[in-house]
Amino acid sequence: MGNCCSDVAGGHASIGTTAGDLRHQADTANDAVDYFLRSRGHRGLFSQIELLFSASGLRDRDVLSKSDPMLVLYTKGKNGALEELGRTEVVLNSLDPTWITKHTLIYHFEVVQVLVNCSIKFFHHRFRVYDVDTQFHNVDVKMLKLEEQQFLGEATCALSEIITRFDQSLTLDLHRDDFITSTHSQNYGKLLVHCEESLSSKTAIEMIFRCSDLEYRDLFSRSDPFLLISKVVEGGMQIPICKTEVIKNDLNPMWKPVFLNIQQVGGKDSPLIIECYNFNSNGKHDLMGKVKRSLLELEKIHSSGQGEKLFLPNKVVLNSQLFVDKFTESVQYTFLDYVAGGFELNFMVAVDFTASNGNPRLPDSLHYLDPSGRQNAYQRAIVEVGEVIQFYDSDKRFPAWGFGARPIDGPVSHCFNLNGSSHYCEVEGIQGIMTAYTSALLNVSLAGPTLFGPVISNAALIASHSVANGGRKYFVLLIITDGVVTDLQETKDALVKASDLPLSILIVGVGGADFKEMEVLDADKGEPLESSSGRVASRDIVQFVPYRDVQSGEISVVQALLAELPTQFLTYVRSRNIQPSL
Amino acid sequence: MDARCPVRTLELTVQSVEGLQLDRKPATTKNNLFVVVRAESINSYTTCMAKEDATNNNLTWNHKLDVDVPLHASSITLEVKSKTLKGVKDVGIARVAVSEFMGGFGSVPQHCLQFLSYRLRDWEGRRNGVLNFSVRVVNSPEYVTAAAGKAVSPCGFKLRGTTMGATTSSSSCGGGVVVGVPIGWNSYGSSTYNNV
């Protein structure tokens, strides 16, 4: 009897410990989910762009009738080769065609789920217009051989050039790059490209799920359920797209709203698998049941007010039910709406000129200017980021600073103008930044230490001026550095203060230094930043990438740094209820 | 409040609190939480009881207060309190420097709405959640002085050329002494941004 009593006491102690750990882990998991959602503006979307084409003033290549034009869309790959993306239909007998065919392109700029590798891509598109020979009028355009058609002209542009226009249309001159006509300018007509963001990209669905009569899965307590929503792709593979928080000790849970984008799901009729798990702190969660339904079917479930019974993989139907307590569909403004509505992204650069970079005249220096023209890491980072962001800035005048150097006959400056001026900091275009950078290298002495606070505060000053003037600008500061920041707390203070301004900060680490402290600044990988006064950053504005990861070629600087920028932008404008001017 | 002493008025909206605990348990609406705002003055401003935000389960007030801040005040405090059967219990406090929302160097201009989040600490200094609130300066002697001299944009005034505080002759506020918080100082002494 005594032994029995002892066993009972031990069991209680063990369960208590486990329960405590479980609560702690659940809180941590839920906090992580909340912060993840909040930092991504809660409703992260990616965009699908539809391109429409028309032309005017085409050359008449037919003898007895007008031309029968067709447009072919290409993109230029990394190796410079043209890759055909699509073709329009043939418009018969017209020199001013309006093609009906729409070409759809994915414009990725933010991540809703970590499984999807999304990014802003720099598109160079080439459009070629052909006069289709009469004998091929009844042939499917996909079967047409382009070499058998008359080439009318071509035009090239970046997708960014189109989407940043107020009317999202761009008129291009068609030209031909053949030997005979290259000696003098000729008019081959004009091409009008118009882009629209597809409605499905803008549509977000908010759902509130509730379950009833879930089964007990914990030994002496109720279950701690959460939902995992996945989409089914070809081959039956399930890709998780959304997860709810864990609700502790509840067999009839109601979760926080879930937000899905139709584009993300694949379509309203695409099947979703909703699995209910019992949370276990060891990571091996118990499946409590699941349903497989499309968004359309979930909407019907919501309308009917009835539940859907869960089932197990062995097809056993359970008494547990899933209810959809809320199902609302809404269209919201996207990043592209703001861009089309006149919002600009203003690029700013700050370059590390501390002595740890090495003597610029020596080949092993991070600032070495190779006589052959090969760019160093600083130059590559500036160009790769700048050539994307510049399209979103109308005047293309960029503030450019250096820090950690000693100008001629002066003390060490932790924020000096790259152009050498004491009055203004702007330079003209990306090339202006490059010129100012090389010029500065020849006119300052590398010094130290590495301080971010001054340049961040200066960028914040510019942003605050813009806010004061009611400007529709969002600023992007690129900091390129080789070392560990010395003024970490001051940098945190500056970042927290700047988090309420229209500003994002991209930090690229070059060289082989230990950048662990940089990752502290990137809130994605840690807790929200907190200043010395206790103020907490209202949003994450920092993205850090060590350049050595980029050098492997697996991912570009642009992808790594800019992936979160539209989300940071949207978080800012939505929190202040700023509307695009459409 | 002595009417002769100039004050600035803040439109302060106490929004929500995250991660707050009482007796090591997550705070709920049953804890009857409210916030008291003070600005180094005998006056205090109190919110209603917190409600639960259905979308994120945070406790929210969304209570707007018009807070008069004496010019001599260097900080305001926001205290989260719990009303219990035994009385009022202090849960956490956040102290905010006035300079944080007065549109200083590299900050949101004071007359624009600012969203602030501050770490709460209990009376033993332990961290206890984050308090979210918004602030806008709706009346300020500095603003009046600046407005008298030049046009002011809807979201506030430019840092350049701003009056550095104000001089008052009232003996109760220190006759002949410049008071107020300096704004627009540039501690880094670096570049000037053109086209502002």
UniProtKB/TrEMBL annotation, chain A:
<keyword id="KW-0106">Calcium</keyword>
<keyword id="KW-0472">Membrane</keyword>
<dbReference type="GO" id="GO:0046872">
    <property type="term" value="F:metal ion binding"/>
</dbReference>
<keyword id="KW-0611">Plant defense</keyword>
<keyword id="KW-0479">Metal-binding</keyword>
<dbReference type="GO" id="GO:0071277">
    <property type="term" value="P:cellular response to calcium ion"/>
</dbReference>
<dbReference type="GO" id="GO:0005886">
    <property type="term" value="C:plasma membrane"/>
</dbReference>
<dbReference type="GO" id="GO:0006952">
    <property type="term" value="P:defense response"/>
</dbReference>
<dbReference type="InterPro" id="IPR035892">
    <property type="entry name" value="C2_domain_sf"/>
</dbReference>
<dbReference type="InterPro" id="IPR037768">
    <property type="entry name" value="C2B_Copine"/>
</dbReference>
<feature type="domain" description="C2">
    <location>
        <begin position="29"/>
        <end position="172"/>
    </location>
</feature>
<dbReference type="GO" id="GO:0005544">
    <property type="term" value="F:calcium-dependent phospholipid binding"/>
</dbReference>
<dbReference type="Pfam" id="PF00168">
    <property type="entry name" value="C2"/>
</dbReference>
<dbReference type="InterPro" id="IPR002035">
    <property type="entry name" value="VWF_A"/>
</dbReference>
<comment type="similarity">
    <text>Belongs to the copine family.</text>
</comment>
<dbReference type="InterPro" id="IPR045052">
    <property type="entry name" value="Copine"/>
</dbReference>
<keyword id="KW-0449">Lipoprotein</keyword>
<dbReference type="InterPro" id="IPR036465">
    <property type="entry name" value="vWFA_dom_sf"/>
</dbReference>
<dbReference type="Pfam" id="PF07002">
    <property type="entry name" value="Copine"/>
</dbReference>
<protein>
    <recommendedName>
        <fullName>C2 domain-containing protein</fullName>
    </recommendedName>
</protein>
<feature type="domain" description="C2">
    <location>
        <begin position="187"/>
        <end position="311"/>
    </location>
</feature>
<keyword id="KW-1003">Cell membrane</keyword>
UniProtKB/TrEMBL annotation, chain B:
<dbReference type="Pfam" id="PF00168">
    <property type="entry name" value="C2"/>
</dbReference>
<dbReference type="InterPro" id="IPR035892">
    <property type="entry name" value="C2_domain_sf"/>
</dbReference>
<dbReference type="GO" id="GO:0006952">
    <property type="term" value="P:defense response"/>
</dbReference>
<dbReference type="InterPro" id="IPR000008">
    <property type="entry name" value="C2_dom"/>
</dbReference>
<feature type="domain" description="C2">
    <location>
        <begin position="1"/>
        <end position="118"/>
    </location>
</feature>
<protein>
    <recommendedName>
        <fullName>C2 domain-containing protein</fullName>
    </recommendedName>
</protein>
<dbReference type="InterPro" id="IPR044750">
    <property type="entry name" value="C2_SRC2/BAP"/>
</dbReference>
